[in-house]
Amino acid sequence: MDKFMEAALEQAKKSLSEGGIPIGSVLVKDGIIVARGHNKRVQEQNPILHGEMDCLYNAGRIGTYKDTVMYSTLMPCYMCAGTIVQFKIPKVVVAESVTFGGARDFMEQHGVEVIDLHHEVCINMMQQFIKENTELWGEDIGEL
C-alpha cells in the first residue's frame, strides 16, 4: 500500500475509533498531502460529511483542483463523485469497491481516471463494519 492510501486508511481507522463509519480520504497535490478527512456523519450528525467531503472541506480554497489526486478507502458515492467532477479532480484512487460500487461509471464518464486497488485490509474492515452495523451502513448509503 502506498503512503497516500496508508494515510487514507489511518483516517478511516480514526473515524471508526470515534464511533463513525470507517472511510477515510486524502487529497494529494504535487506529491504532498494537502488535506485529510474521514466520514463524520455520526460524530457530527451531518448527513453530507462523507470522507471525501470532509477532506475537501479541510483542503479549503487551494485554487485549482485540476492537478490533485483524491485517495479514498472506498469508492465514492454519487454525492462525493459529483463534487470530484465539479472541481475537476482528474484522478481518484480507491482502496476498494467490493462493499460499495459507488459512482465509478459516473466519474469515468466525466473524464475522471479511477483506480481500484482491491485492497484486502480495507475490504475486510468494511465487511466487518457492515456486518456489525447494518442499519448505520444502510443510513450512510441511503438504503435505510
Describe, in plain words, how this protein is organized in 3D.
There is one protein chain. The protein has helices at residues 3-17, 41-44, 51-59, 78-86, 104-109, 120-132, 134-140; strands at residues 24-29, 32-38, 68-72, 91-94, 113-116. The protein is globular and about 40 Å long. It has 7 helices and 5 strands, in the order αββααβαβαβαα. Helix 6 (120-132) crosses helix 7. Strand 1 and strand 2 (32-38) form a beta hairpin. It is 44% helix and 18% strand. With 144 residues, the chain is an alpha/beta fold. Strands 2-1-3-4-5 form a 5-stranded mixed beta sheet.
Key words describing this protein structure:
five-stranded mixed β-sheet, 18% strand
Specify the structural class: alpha/beta
Proportion of residues in extended strands: 15-25%
Low-confidence region ranges:
none
> How are helices and strands ordered from N to C?
HEEHHEHEHEHH
Q: Which value, in Å, is the CA radius of gyration?
A: 14 Å
How many angstroms separate the termini? Answer: 33 Å
Helix content: 40-55%
Number of helices: 7
Biggest sheet character: 5 strands, mixed
> What is the approximate shape?
globular
What average pLDDT do the residues reach? 96
Give the neighbour order of strands across the main sheet: 2-1-3-4-5
Task: Count the beta strands.
Answer: 5
